[in-house]
Specification:
Residues 348-492 form the Glycosyl hydrolase family 32 C-terminal domain. By secondary structure, the protein is mainly beta. The chain has one helix at residues 2-16, and strands spanning 36-47, 50-58, 68-74, 81-87, 94-102, 118-126, 131-139, 147-153, 160-168, 173-180, 185-191, 198-203, 213-224, 231-239, 249-257, 262-264, 273-274, 282-286, 298-302, 317-318, 325-332, 335-342, 350-360, 365-366, 373-381, 387-393, 399-405, 410-417, 429-433, 440-448, 451-456, 461-466, 475-481, 485-494. It contains 1 helix and 34 strands. The structure holds beta-D-fructofuranose (FRU).
Length: 504
């Protein structure tokens, strides 16, 4: 029924509009708003049984502009319900990116009836005054309605934004990290009450530089493979352009944080360490206030790239989040590196399971994967081959390839032939360096109609790429070039996750 309604709506649109718009197959378990434009995740916080996902949202169209905080909630990180706008733009300021906390001790005084308030700390972007400064809004009804308290921190800059705030237990105060975007600096401030902020320190420029540093995050993680009880801090910094996948991407630093200053571990490389090697993982930030019995660090990214974000051929919404990912920190010979895997809750959407094994050669072997929405676990042995390819082919012959090149230690996503042309920066190939001396690799691929999230060797590297198709159903196949390879696959169909409010 829903599909028919959508088809009729799309045909009506085509009949009345000069621009041919096509309703693409919506992702089934990645969050997208019902309609219009979405960018960065904002205000990720857990409270009273709900994970909140706020996001940069334009309620007036499907390109960037009129930034509001859109809002969705979930009880399990995989079923999302879209709610009305949380924080609107005002006559003076757009509501740019930021974070949210539960003020458990009511340090702000905004609590009511003995219940802690939710506090959003975000950037007010004032285009007329050419000023970006930090604002506070609060909610006493589980994030459903918000009162803007107003500006709490300005340094008089037009490019000071994206505050990430969290409670620092050791020093018993709030910490904010925000960026001076053009200068490539992260500034750290502290506060007793979320309203008065004191400058503490500055970090950068460092690592990947350029236009712009955006959406910082700072959190502590235990070190797997480290000394007993070792913990380190991860500073995430997003880079607007010229990241490893071409356009926007995230980098991170590992070090120590004493409540005032972030110091990278000795020997931390001077070049950027990337969160993800694809083009479509940006503005990733993590949840605050997960339940006490849940020690995980979970983040989510905007699956898009500023180079072509406003041109991607989806309708009636333009903007998609990745699945929430658990972030961990490992120490190996290479040093401290993050790893990412889909949160375990993703498995609760599994439908039918199929197990499959094949020896591959140049003739494509059909894989038992139905359609564009699937959770796939591959174990690949490159054998004597020089390239193993997992290929998605649509009804018009467009192809997106996930490949393994054992001879050059690469896993890649090639979308040079994935869908009709819509932007010159899109058709490219993204490579993650992976040690393939053993010639074996494990790939977990989350596919969802227009996105591939590839987790390599338990998330030691990831490649996140959107793809768009000409039409028709997707077919999956695998092949090996230059020799034989072995493939084992466990494939699950996926049940719908994201609540699909129909576009009005
Ligand atoms: C990152 C970003 C942020 C800013 C927001 C505006 O994608 O540019 O720095 O707050 O988007 O929508």
């Amino acid at each position: 029924m829903k599909k028919i309604a959508l088809f009729l709506a799309a045909s009506a649109m085509l009949a009345t509009s000069a621009v041919a718009q096509r309703a693409d197959p919506r992702p089934s378990y990645h969050f997208a708003p019902a309609k219009n434009w979405m960018n960065d995740p904002n205000g990720l916080v857990y409270y009273d049984g709900e994970y909140h996902l706020f996001y940069q949202y334009n309620p007036h169209g499907d390109r960037w502009g009129h930034m509001n905080w859109g809002h969705a909630v979930s009880r399990d990180l995989v079923h999302w319900q879209e709610l009305p706008i949380a924080i609107p733009e005002t006559a003076d300021v757009m509501a740019f990116s930021g974070s949210a906390v539960v003020d458990w001790n009511n340090t702000s005084g905004f609590g009511r009836n003995g219940k802690p308030p939710l506090i959003a700390i975000y950037t007010g972007h004032n285009p007329k005054a050419k000023l970006q400064s930090q604002y506070v809004a609060y909610s006493n009804d589980r994030g459903r309605t918000w009162t803007v308290h107003g500006e709490v921190l300005s340094v008089g800059s037009p490019e000071f934004r994206d505050p990430k705030v969290f409670w620092h237990a050791a020093t018993k105060r709030w910490v904010m990290v925000a960026v001076m975007a053009l200068e490539n600096r992260a500034l750290i401030f502290t506060s007793p009450n979320l309203k008065q902020w004191t400058f503490a320190s500055s970090f950068g420029p460092a690592g990947g530089r350029g236009k712009n540093w955006e959406c910082p995050d700072l959190f502590e993680l235990p070190v797997e493979g480290g000394a007993a009880g070792e913990k380190r801090w991860v500073l995430g910094i997003n880079l607007g352009d010229n990241a490893v996948g071409g356009g926007s991407g995230g980098q991170y630093f590992v070090g120590d944080f004493d409540g005032a200053k972030f110091t990278p571990v000795p020997g931390w490389p001077g070049d950027a360490q990337w969160m993800d090697y694809g083009a479509d993982f940006y503005a990733a930030v993590s949840w605050n206030d997960l339940p006490k019995d849940d020690p995980r660090r979970i983040w989510i990214g905007w699956a898009n790239d500023w180079r072509y974000a406003e041109a991607i051929p989806t309708w009636p919404s333009r903007g998609l989040m990745t699945v929430p990912r658990q972030v961990t920190l490992r120490k190996s010979a290479a040093g401290y590196r993050i790893a990412q895997m889909p949160v375990r809750e993703v498995a609760s959407l599994h439908g039918t399971r199929q197990d499959f094994a094949a020896t591959l050669d140049e003739t494509p072997t059909a894989l038992p994967v139905q359609g564009g929405s699937a959770d796939l676990e591959f174990a690949i042995d490159g054998g004597s081959s020089e390239q193993v390819a997992i290929t998605l082919t649509d009804g018009e012959g467009y192809q997106t390839v996930v490949g393994v090149n054992p001879t050059v230690d690469e896993v890649f996503v090639d979308r040079t032939r994935s869908g009709p042309h819509f932007h010159h920066a899109f058709a490219n190939r993204h490579v993650a360096p992976v040690d393939l001396k053993s010639r074996t690799v494990r790939l977990r691929i989350l596919a969802d109609e227009s996105i591939l999230e590839v987790f390599i060797n338990d998330g030691e590297r990831t490649i996140t790429d959107r793809f768009f198709r000409g039409g028709g159903p997707l077919r999956w196949s695998a092949s090996a070039r230059g020799g034989n390879a072995k493939l084992k696959l466990t494939a699950w169909t996926m049940q719908d996750g994201a609540v699909k409010a129909e576009a009005e």
